[in-house]
Predict the 3D structure of the following.
Amino acid sequence: MTEAPLAAAQHDLARAYAGGAPGVLVSGVVWLIAGTVWQLHGTTAAFAALFFGGMAIHPLGVLIERVAFKAPKASIGKPLETLAIEATIPLFVGVLIAWILLVRAPDLAIPTFAAIIGARYFLFRTMYGEIAYWALGAAILLVAALALFGIGLPLNLGFVVGIIEFAAAAVILQRWRSRR
């Protein structure tokens, strides 16, 4: 894809998915739920909340995009949608690694899960043409790294990632609205 077709595909995909902000918002809710579950029921239950809640992110995000924003389906952005689907395979591999850590080193499982999610957000910069995804990915990777190295956070990691995603969703949505 040359620059002009890439920009057109990014614009089309951003239009169809409200810049991706609804998905980031739903993911933030999932992380806050996982943080709460972690506080109340421990790491394994929080991991389950992330795993099953993660499966709801895309369908709920699309529902919000279609109902709240009346977003149309993507047309020329289809190759970028394919990229998003292809990027799900490394996501599954990362979740498998985090799941193995849940058994072998439980304190590393959720920080690893967060690092995987943070790394995946870097791809969204290309998909939506929105540089805020680099900041989102970097912020999540930073807090995941702190947790992986045992450096204490003011709240549990689920809450921190959820708050980061809420803030990013607000920024991305505002930037998307200004470009429409």
Remarks:
- The helical segments are 3-16, 21-41, 43-68, 78-86, 88-104, 106-128, 132-148, 157-179.
